[in-house]
Design a protein that fits this description.
Strand content: 25-35%
CATH superfamily of the largest domain: Thiolase/Chalcone synthase
Number of domains: 2
Radius of gyration: 19 Å
Largest sheet: 8 strands, mixed
Helix content: 25-40%
Amino acid sequence: MIGLRRGLVKGARIAALGVSIPERVVTNDELAASLDTSDDWIRSRTGIRERRVTAPHESTSDVAVAAALDLLHSNGHRAEDIDLVISTSLVPDMVFPATASVIAERIGAVNAGAFDVQSGCTGFVYGLATATAFVASGFYQNVLVTGAEALTKALDWDDRATCVLFGDGAGAVLVTPCDSCLFSFDLGNDGTGAPFLNMPAGGTRLPASHESVDERQHYLRMNGREVYRFATRRVVESCRRTLTDAGLQPEDVDLFVPHQANLRIIEKVADQLGFRDEQVFYNLDRFGNTSCASIPLCLHDAVTQGRLKSGDTLLMVGFGAGLTWGSALTRWQL
């Protein structure tokens, strides 16, 4: 049973995957044409060489719907069989209604409940844990979880510290029953880190006004140094707890899929956990930090490339605004 921080859940698996990748590619060189930066500067500090950007008319729900439809069409599942839709995103379509409600309606999930999970870039892991608990308890049979972002619409393109990092995209997974499948989760939060990664205005703390717009308070803001310190400590601790709960060691993991925030963070965490290079998966060089979409996009690429196969032991970990963290371990049964 899932506790507040961690636990084992038996009886659910990821049964299907889908993705949506925006067409437009923005390279480091394109950013360097308008910013005081360069391809070498960005690559050496982040590992990113390009990212995808949604079209002006596209929102978070648009890329989420595309990922969900990709999942349904490529795996033979029916939208009317979905019991619940969980949307995870750093930047939903609007404060309310829930983006999940829009997604459910547009894909034809007419029998599904719907709600959003907001826990920063850890959102996908939190959503997966929630879906797994619903399915393992027998409450639902088919739960759709989307991790989708049109995050570039919330960036200050004059702020070199943030705009070079992020990109857009979406992934979706379907969680269904599986008697022999086991998930190990660890979820956590440290609210003292809230000032280090946020969007200051637009909520009830600082409602939209002429002043908030003039002061550029409706963009993502981040203290990169503090986020790095947090991630390289809390993420390692979370992964170790999750492995311990499952009775496993780092050498038992076939593939480690971390949130794609920064290559330096990924390498530091992997080194501290004792993972070999071949155990670690990343694709942020092509997509940048896609927040809640980063882990499902990695899962899709790993399956496509043959890096993740049925029977493999998979460890995922997310971290982000809150400051939150969450790790999940399972035997891949897709």
